[in-house]
From TrEMBL:
Region (Disordered) residue spans: 145-170
Source species of the chain: Streptomyces pathocidini
Matching Gene3D superfamilies: Winged helix-like DNA-binding domain superfamily/Winged helix DNA-binding domain (1.10.10.10)
Protein name per its UniProtKB record: MarR family winged helix-turn-helix transcriptional regulator
Classification via PROSITE patterns: HTH_MARR_2
Biased composition (Low complexity): 147-170
Domain HTH marR-type: 7-137
Amino acid sequence: MAAQSQYEELARQLSAIGAVKRHLGRALPHDCQPGSAAVLAVLDRYGEMRLSRLAELLAVDMSVTSRHVAHVAGRGWIERQPDPLDRRSRLLRLTRSGEEVVREISGRCVDALAGALRDWSDEEVGQLNSLLGRLRDDFGDCRRGLADTPEATEATETPAAATRAEASAP
């Protein structure tokens, strides 16, 4: 087990990660807040879903998620359709415009990271990714590895997402 001083230093380092996040936030398009970018990223990664599931995956309150959803919907980046299983609920999904914004955000973030880490080796970047993933696992991040297991995919898929997946299967 690591010494207390190592955990204290880790806590300081994790707190300082806010500076990295702020730097990446400055790379976002001017009309895309970090919370909105997170909504788009989750919908891009996991497909259409209800607001409640989105809030769970973002690990934020429903009211905060609703504000971010309103922001991206107002810009035409997502659409809200009735859920065929429950007409009281809405399914959220990216529009073509939203997919374009996701690609733009991804490119800007990759460029910012590549610039800041230009003297890191591929192995070092891989180690960082691996260790951060392990840290998320140990804290029970509900998104970690979600798309990698059939059981998890079935648990989060909507009927429309399943149909889309079946249609694109070889």
